[in-house]
Amino acid sequence: MKNKKAFALVLLALILVIVGAANYILSALSARVDLTAEQLYTLSPGSKAVLGKLDRKVTLKFFFSESAKDMPPSLKTYAEQVRDLLGEYERAGNGNVTLEIYDPKQDSDEEEWAVKYGIEPQQANPFGAPIYFGLVAVCGTQEQTIPGFDPRMESTLEYEITRHITRAVWPERPVVGVLSAIPGVLGEQPNPMMMQRQRPSRGWIAFSELKKDYDVREIAKDAESIDDDVKALVVVHPKDLSEKTLFAIDQFVIKGGRLIACVDPFSFKDFQASGQQQNPMMMQMGGQGGPSTLGKLFDAWGVSFDTSKCVADDKASVQMRGRNGAVETDATLLDLGKANIAKDVLTAGLSQLLLPYAGALEVTAKDGLAFTPILTTSTNGACLVEASMLQMGPAAIRDQIKPDGVRRTLAGRLTGTFKTAFPKGPDWKEGSTNAVPKVVASGESSVFLFADADFLADEACVQVVDTLFGQQAALRGDNLALFANIVEQFAGREELIGLRSRGPSDRPFEVVRELRAEAEKKFRAKAEDLQKKFNETNKKLNDLLQGKHGTDRKLISQELESAIGEARREKAKTQKELKNVRKELNADIENLGFRLKVLNICLVPLLVVLFGIVHALLRRKR
How many CB atoms lie within 10 A of CB 372? Predict the structure, then answer.
């Protein structure tokens, strides 16, 4: 008996030694497996490419008040995730990346360093010590600081870290030009003649973000040339451009400049700038902001763009509250999911985009050019509607929506050899004596086309939220990520493409969207039937009232009362049917949600049990 106990103790001690040795050996190995759905601890190929090109030492100084008593648990959990990801940078840096971790306690040297580097102190408790949660990338004399990590911006975490590394190692800033017919895109300086103090407008967030990495230069709407040092030109809603400005853009592209053109059949930002103060995403529009196109350039490239039509898509519609508080579905506010986004290096990791009141591009690329669609509508839910009908509101638009089975192109890339649209210069006419300017006839370049300009506006890109770090702009979908990817490819470091978004946590539920679209069709059909019945009842009442006088009044009242009663019964019956459709829709959504919950909760335990059973059977056979 004693021998058995001694043997058991020795065996237990041996097991503990083996487990400890295995743990030590495995911890020294670089082999790691990331089982998280979003691959939170795995670096993207772009980050690895940046780290592989490092020719200088980079130090990542991570400041986090780990010992602070007032540190919120959620922030502490997120900090561990950030720290683990930074460890991946150190491991993938091939000796060129060093991670240093600091706990800046109050009145310590670490706190002094944090303040020196620009890490912002935050107060979780008004009476407690400040807390710090930020990062500094140091390369020689270059320092790039992330003042504070916000869990709400988790989807751009890797991009922000990699971007700050690249800015520290390669501090040069390419020039990006911006030409727009919409005022205030890049912000407006206060009028020095005004007596009251004015705060300068920061402009659209899409462009204020660009300014962090690029020299963003405004190009006048009537410009007759584009500076030679401009690597990429962004044209936003090019409404009423002169031929000389179009010629300048034409020559810029042909000489190798990269162009991002955002045309629009209706720009709510242009409409808003004209003096309308309503919420542009909810207003019943009473005017027209004016369409934009690139005219002769499109003709030369084989691009057709109907400025009188907007795209409506039942499969990508947005639900919103109207003026009376009722929920309305607007099919011209396009909420695009993965099914609408082509697989491309520019769209890696993107899953949701919002395009308000977009048009459609039809491209038959001319010889030497190739066109790649990037964003498209659904095939069985889309059609074109009159842009002028937008002023009538979503209800009027719905009556026009008759899907025609055509998949429309909303954005795409045009590459190859471009030929000039002005072989004899701008404003040239037959018999003209004007001197012909020097014209470059053709050249290699790339152009990215969007059939919408408002997708870059703040209303479509971000939402302002209150956080521990004050008011911050949280991403609304992937509009900014796609735009930044394109600018990065056209003007900056292509390695950063695909890093910006690991996919938002609040993704559109594609199956639910399909169910809702089907329900909308049923609602619409029921509403049309109801209206038809009301029209028939009114006609019947008018027929009864014609030619009835004197003693027929009593008879008229009886007939009228009977007709009204019939109409009310028809209305109640139809409303009941509509209610049943809603119940069926909700039941389908609830059943789907229940099935997904069961799958999420039970799948992993079932796989573990299955693995155990298979393992046991194999051991028996042995």
Answer: 15
pTM of the model: 0.65
**Burial profile 8-37: b = 16 or more Cβ within 10 angstroms, e = fewer:** eeeeeeeeeeeeeeeeeeeeeeeeeeeeee
Residues in the chain, how many?
622
- The whole-angstrom separation of Cα 343 and Cα 269 is 30
Block means of pLDDT (10 residues each) for the chain, 622 residues, are 64 70 57 52 85 94 91 90 94 94 92 93 79 95 93 83 92 94 81 51 88 93 94 96 95 96 94 61 47 96 96 87 70 93 86 94 93 95 89 79 92 96 78 65 96 94 66 78 92 72 51 58 58 59 53 54 66 63 59 61 70 74 66
Q: Which of 168, 162, 61, 191 is nearest to 118 (CA)?
A: 61
- Coil, helix or strand at residue 224: coil
Token code pair at residue 239: 């409404």
Q: What is the rounded (10 degree) CA torsion for 347, 348, 354, 355?
A: 0
How far, in Å, are 63, 113, 229, 245 from residue 120 at the CA level? 10, 11, 36, 45
The rounded distance, in Å, linking the Cα atoms of 311 and 220 is 30
Q: According to the 3-state scheme, what is the secondary structure of 13-45?
A: HHHHHHHHHHHHHHHHCCCCCCCCCCCCCCCCH
Q: How far apart are CA 10 and CA 37, in angstroms?
A: 42
> In sequence order, what are the residues at sequence separation of 6 or more whose Cβ sits closer than 8 angstroms to the Cβ of residue 330?
317, 318, 319, 320, 394, 397
Q: Tokens 């870059």 correspond to what residue?
A: 456
Q: Are 378 and 360 in contact (CB under 8 A)?
A: no
Q: 27 is written with which tokens?
A: 């911890």
Count of H helices and E strands in the chain? 14, 21
**CA nearest to 253, candidates 114, 412, 382, 416:** 416
Report helix angle 45-52 to 157-169, nearest 10: 20
Q: Which residues contact 114 (CB under 8 A, 6 or more apart)?
A: 63, 102, 104, 121, 132, 134
520 contacts 504 by C-beta, under 8 angstroms? no
422 three-class SS: coil
Task: Give Cα separations from 530 to 277, 307, 537 (angstroms).
Answer: 36, 35, 11
**Which of left, alpha, beta for 37 (phi over 0: left; psi -120 to 50: alpha)?**
alpha
- Do residues 320 and 302 make contact, with C-beta atoms less than 8 angstroms apart? no
DSSP string, 347-388: GTT---EEEET---EEE-PPTTEEEEEEEE--SSSEEEEEGG
